[in-house]
């Protein structure tokens, strides 16, 4: 009895049964979407990998690296992994909760809404509509659509929980709950903007604050979009595939608790090493180590679950994908904490090491768990054998070799890069003073990456082929599964339905009895421990989030101001928006770290007060090109004409450059139809433009543009550039670092005078 | 740089209170997990494997 109907009452009175029909069609749709978008996202990845190895692959304005990289990251995270998560959640939740999803209409709205968002991303990102914040590039109307679809999903999911016919919430469901709640909080707070046009907006946060919020989002997006839902998947599908329960259920709960709570808490290193008081900071370090332990506990739990099926490993592609996927989970969760150690980070930050790290996670963990799930689901969902087991195994091997080649190439590139940047020769000068020399050294590794990516993509394409052929060959009439389960009121039931068992009273039973007796609505909602814990988890996550968000929002008033830092001129602001449109921040950083080699190479390190008008911040996270924070001052400052030539053809001024050419900037007129609106949006955000400045914005921009164009002509550059986009861009670049430089010169003079004075 | 900004902001109280609440919930969860009875553990961990067999396909 106990075994057959895990949730049924003790053995008297035959329980009333109910029919449940699962919605499998929606799962099939999500599986198709996963594979199709996976192939597309990886193809874009391959293209941008090629562009780094071989610049001529930047064939067209909308296909340049700066515009395609956000498309790649968004496609792989939100389209590939996203659809995979939804397939996993819709399949497993219905079965674990013994109910159909809450509403078919919501399921379909979720599916089509999400695909619509992906399509709109695929259109707007290459066209240059971007907020520039990594993995949050989509412009505000799409952000709103994401929020709406996410709410639809949440109602559908929590509605199913409310209607479940299973008292216990299996650990996978807990992971899903944490995912849905946290992603909502992350998305909303990181996407707060003031619109300055239909597809243009400025982050409400500036500089330091914007960076804090962005990386709180970025870090936790990895945790709650790419980790927790996949752990839910790991606790459901591998046990099914191996046909044995999870190795240790208790461990899985500890894994859940430590991961969810510690991640949201100690995860964002920004806060971790900053806002926390000293004692908590020490505790935070303990947390980091603690985080590594449950992660590995989880990995071992997953691997040991599969242990009993080791025998089948040789020819079962599903198990192989899971074993390697879980192993990569272990590798990434070891590497992650390691990279957050300051001394390691000093070397790895801005380099391709980070790229290696994310790909061992994305290709190894997310990719392989997804493929394992898909290969397991196809026979169930389409009532057929997998078309070709050989092909599935070929996919596995291509993928595995692909990851290893990719990751090895990027490790060596990243470490070499980091070492070259910081290398000094015997005379105390930078060993590689010319940045492009460090780039040239890495080109062979970039080619190796192309090979690795090609192998992985080839594997994925075999997977797509296998899926399509399986579906085509399937003779079965596709139908939803109908099962017979114990009726809801019996399972969740009233006091009469569940007598307390003799010997060993369970919490759940007691609680159920209490709830059944109290008739309040809230108590109904909280049926059983499942409900109580859902609420507790919610509280835990929300407290963690709020405790992080509030300081980040309040910190603004504590940034020391620098008197000489002034807002951009209208022309410079337009130039900055071009920089965002072209995605230059995908190759260039604008944040110099206080390290000898960086100051030597680029100039004075970044000060918080410099960035108070930077909506959004443009610090970047990767240096494929040099830092530009001091491009307008000191030894880095170049003539306007140099920049014109450089944009027209970077190779003309720097033979080994891999930067794309931006010829269209020289040809296209600057669109100033929104300039005033942009200044007004900035005023709303607290940037001190006056109404008079708004009024004269366009004419001021034209004046500045004309004067720069005249200088270019005088320098012997091309004539007639006034009001072209390139001039706005140059105005912006020449402004970079100027304000702080002025302040420092004033400071130097002042101290010189005070020394002279008696 | 970030460290200075955040430390001078005097916002530790959020961290402290949040940390305490977090710790409470976390402990509750751990205690609950560790005190689960054997039978219950077994029952729950069997959930994915004991899904009732589909009866008949309903053609859509």
- Low-pLDDT windows of residues of chain B: none
- The helical percent of chain B reads 55-70%
Largest interface: A-B, 79 and 52 residues
The percentage of residues in β strands of chain A lies in under 5%
Provide mean pLDDT of chain B, rounded. 73
Q: Order of strands in the sheet with the most strands of chain A?
A: 1-5
Overall 3D form of chain B: elongated
Q: Residue share in helices of chain A?
A: 55-70%
Spans of at least 5 consecutive residues with low confidence of chain A: 1-13, 270-277, 494-500, 519-528
Give the tally of structural domains of chain A.
Answer: 2
List the helices and strands and how they pair.
The complex is a heterodimer of chains A (758) and B (60).
Chain A lengths: L16 E5 L3 H29 L11 H33 L6 H21 L15 H23 L8 H20 L2 E3 L5 E3 L3 H19 L2 H15 L6 H18 L2 H4 L5 H30 L9 H23 L2 H7 L3 H31 L6 H34 L12 H39 L5 E2 L1 E5 L1 H4 L15 H11 L3 H5 L2 H27 L15 H13 L13 H7 L37 H9 L1 H4 L10 H4 L7 H10 L6 H5 L1 H18 L10 H11 L2 H19 L2
Antiparallel strand pairs in A: 1-5, 2-3
Helix pairs in contact in A: 1-2, 1-3, 1-13, 1-15, 2-3, 2-7, 2-13, 3-4, 4-5, 5-6, 5-7, 5-8, 5-19, 6-19, 7-10, 7-11, 7-13, 8-10, 8-19, 10-11, 11-13, 11-14, 13-14, 13-15, 14-15, 20-28, 22-28
Chain B lengths: L1 H7 L3 H23 L3 H8 L12 E2 L1
Description:
The complex is a heterodimer of chains A (758) and B (60). Chain A contains 29 helices and 5 strands. In chain A, strand 2 (193-195) and strand 3 form a beta hairpin. Chain A is an all-alpha fold and 758 residues long. With 60 residues, chain B is mainly α. Chain B is built from 3 helices and 1 strand, in the order αααβ. Chain B has helices spanning 2-8, 12-34, 38-45, and one strand spanning 58-59. The mean pLDDT of chain B is 73. The interface between A and B is large, with 79 and 52 residues. Strand 4 (479-480) of chain A pairs antiparallel with strand 1 (58-59) of chain B.
């Amino acid at each position: 009895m106990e075994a057959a109907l895990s949730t049924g009452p003790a053995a008297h009175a035959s329980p009333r049964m109910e029919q449940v029909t699962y919605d499998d069609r929606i799962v099939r749709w999500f599986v198709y979407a996963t594979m199709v978008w996976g192939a597309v996202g990886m193809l874009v990845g391959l293209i941008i990998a090629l562009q780094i190895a071989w610049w001529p692959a930047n064939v067209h304005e909308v296909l340049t690296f700066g515009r395609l990289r956000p498309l790649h990251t968004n496609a792989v995270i939100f389209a590939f992994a996203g659809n995979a998560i939804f397939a996993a959640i819709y399949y497993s939740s219905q079965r674990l909760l013994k109910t159909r999803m809450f509403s078919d209409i919501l399921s379909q709205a979720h599916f089509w809404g999400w695909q619509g968002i992906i399509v709109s991303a695929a259109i707007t990102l290459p066209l240059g509509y971007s907020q520039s914040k990594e993995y949050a590039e989509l412009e505000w109307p799409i952000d709103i659509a994401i929020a709406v679809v996410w709410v639809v999903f949440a109602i559908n999911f929590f509605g199913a929980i409310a209607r479940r016919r299973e008292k216990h919430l299996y650990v996978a469901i807990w992971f899903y709950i944490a995912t849905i709640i946290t992603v909502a909080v992350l998305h909303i707070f990181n996407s707060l903007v003031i619109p300055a046009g239909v597809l243009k907006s400025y982050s409400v946060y500036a500089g330091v604050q914007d960076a804090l919020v962005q990386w709180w989002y970025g870090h936790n997006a990895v945790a709650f979009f790419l980790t927790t839902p996949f752990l839910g998947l790991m606790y459901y599908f591998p046990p099914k595939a191996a046909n044995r329960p999870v190795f240790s259920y208790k461990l899985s709960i500890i894994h859940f608790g430590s991961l969810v709570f510690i991640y949201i808490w100690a995860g964002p290193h920004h806060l971790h090493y900053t806002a926390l008081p000293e004692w908590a900071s020490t505790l935070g370090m303990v947390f980091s180590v603690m985080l590594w332990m449950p992660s590995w506990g989880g990995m071992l739990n997953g691997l040991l679950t599969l242990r009993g099926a080791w025998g089948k490993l040789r020819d079962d592609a599903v198990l192989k994908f899971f074993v390697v996927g879980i192993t990569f989970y272990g590798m990434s969760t070891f590497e992650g904490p390691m990279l957050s150690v300051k001394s390691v980070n000093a070397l790895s930050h801005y380099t391709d090491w980070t790229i290696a790290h994310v790909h061992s996670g994305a290709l190894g963990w997310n990719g392989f768990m997804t493929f394992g799930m898909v290969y397991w689901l196809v026979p169930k969902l389409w009532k057929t054998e997998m078309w070709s087991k050989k092909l599935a195994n070929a996919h596995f091997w291509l993928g595995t070799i692909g990851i290893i080649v990719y990751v090895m190439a990027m490790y060596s590139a990243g470490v070499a890069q980091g070492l070259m940047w910081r290398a000094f020769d015997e005379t105390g000068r930078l060993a590689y003073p010319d940045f492009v020399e460090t780039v040239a050294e890495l080109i062979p590794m970039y080619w190796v990456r192309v090979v690795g990516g090609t192998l992985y993509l080839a594997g994925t394409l075999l997977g797509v082929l296998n899926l399509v052929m399986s579906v085509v060959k399937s003779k079965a009439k596709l139908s939803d599964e109908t099962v017979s389960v114990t009726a809801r009121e019996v399972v969740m039931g009233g006091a009469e339905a569940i007598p307390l068992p003799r010997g060993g009273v369970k919490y759940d039973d007691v609680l159920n009895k209490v709830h059944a007796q109290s008739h309040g609505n809230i108590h109904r909602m909280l049926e059983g421990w499942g409900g109580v814990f859902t609420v507790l988890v919610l509280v835990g996550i929300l407290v963690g989030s709020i405790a992080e968000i509030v300081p980040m929002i309040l910190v603004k008033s504590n940034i020391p101001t620098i008197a000489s830092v002034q807002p951009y001129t209208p022309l410079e602001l337009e130039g900055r928006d071009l920089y965002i449109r072209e995605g230059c921040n995908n190759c260039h950083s604008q944040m110099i770290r206080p390290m000898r080699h960086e100051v030597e190479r680029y100039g004075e390190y970044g000060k918080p007060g410099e960035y108070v008008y930077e909506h959004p911040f443009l610090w970047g996270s990767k240096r494929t090109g040099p830092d530009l924070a001091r491009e307008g001052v000191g030894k880095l400052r170049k003539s306007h004409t140099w920049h014109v030539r450089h944009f027209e053809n970077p190779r003309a001024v720097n033979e080994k450059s891999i930067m794309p050419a931006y010829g269209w900037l020289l040809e296209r007129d600057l669109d100033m139809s929104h300039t005033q609106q942009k200044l007004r949006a900035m005023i709303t955000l607290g940037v001190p433009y006056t109404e008079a400045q708004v009024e004269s914005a366009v004419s001021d921009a034209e004046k500045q543009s004309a004067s720069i164009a005249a200088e270019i002509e005088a320098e012997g550059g091309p004539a007639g550039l006034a009001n072209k986009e390139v001039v706005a861009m140059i105005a912006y670049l020449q402004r970079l670092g100027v304000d702080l430089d002025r302040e420092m010169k004033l400071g130097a003079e002042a101290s010189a005078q005070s020394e002279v004075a008696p | 740089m970030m460290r200075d900004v955040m430390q001078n902001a005097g916002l530790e109280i959020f961290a402290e209170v949040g940390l305490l609440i977090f710790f409470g919930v976390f402990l509750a969860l751990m205690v609950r997990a560790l005190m689960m009875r054997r039978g219950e553990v077994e029952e729950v961990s069997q959930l994915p494997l004991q899904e009732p067999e589909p009866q008949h396909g309903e053609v859509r």
